[in-house]
Amino acid sequence: MSVRTAAVAAAALLAVVLTGCSTNESPSVDPGSLFSGMEVAEARTACLADRGWDVSLDAQGAMLANYPPEQEAAFEADNLACLEEAGVDPDAGLTDEEFETAYRWYREIESCLRAHGWDAPERPSEERFRDTYDTAPWIPWEFVDDLERAQADCPVMNIPAG
Amino acid sequence: MEHQNQATATDTRLTSKRRGTPLRRARLGAAAASAAAALLLTAVAPAPAHAVGMKSVTGVIECRSWPAIWVGTSATARGDVKFQLNRKDNLGTIGTVYLGKSSTYAPWGYKWITSGAGNFYAYGLTASGNVTKAARYCQA
């Protein structure tokens, strides 16, 4: 075996080893299922526009609404109806799967924040996380006083667009 | 230079007037009763009528610049998340934005460009909605 062939073989072996290592790591959490997303935003905006409201959608999926203060209650009623029409159950609680996703997402955020020198509240067990979510939720960025800087350090905190 | 103030919301009472069909009224009532909002106030700025009953924490902040300045707003919220920023001295609304719905608490943020800002409201609407913290800052 020539030196060049040996080097290529070694590189290939290293690649296999590295690939093997990376597949053994936990994959990053995709928190997308926890958010309503762009499709819902588009459907809601169209629904409200059909009902005569002055609304527009920006590129990030935020819906800007323009209504007089005295019309706020009427707007909110239509907004809820349009959310339901868009397929969102506004009264739905967290499913088991969503709890699990949220816990894993929060755990990634916590690890990243600590790695960048931010303080974070002590992580509860997953069971305790569920039990206390509606009363004293564990929010890993609770101590962060500058969300923008923390999100720059830890893009995993960003809410998925669309 | 950046100025920042924060609020923590713990109250969930709202006293909005309700209108619409009985079904909508019921839904809106449930949403309003379960919603929470965090409120930031500028100095000497009275809260608008629709905010009566919400938990509020005050902070003094001046966001004024010519011709305009970025005002960043953020909140830890879940539910149908709505931000509203008033003009300086609460003379009208700069804007109202619905950022999306989340089933869990998430760090939401939005930036406005304006020459002067008043109260900032962060809402977590729908039955599971809530807001635990809100902040506003000016960026020169």
UniProtKB/TrEMBL annotation, chain A:
Alphabetical UniProt keywords: Signal
Domain of life: Bacteria
Signal peptide: 1-20
Name by which UniProt lists this protein: DUF732 domain-containing protein
Lineage: Bacteria, Bacillati, Actinomycetota, Actinomycetes, Micrococcales
From TrEMBL, chain B:
Lineage, broadest ranks: Bacteria, Bacillati, Actinomycetota, Actinomycetes, Micrococcales
Protein name as it appears in the record: SH3 domain-containing protein
Region (Disordered): 1-21
UniProt biased composition (Polar residues): 1-13
Domain of life: Bacteria
InterPro entries the record matches: TAT_signal
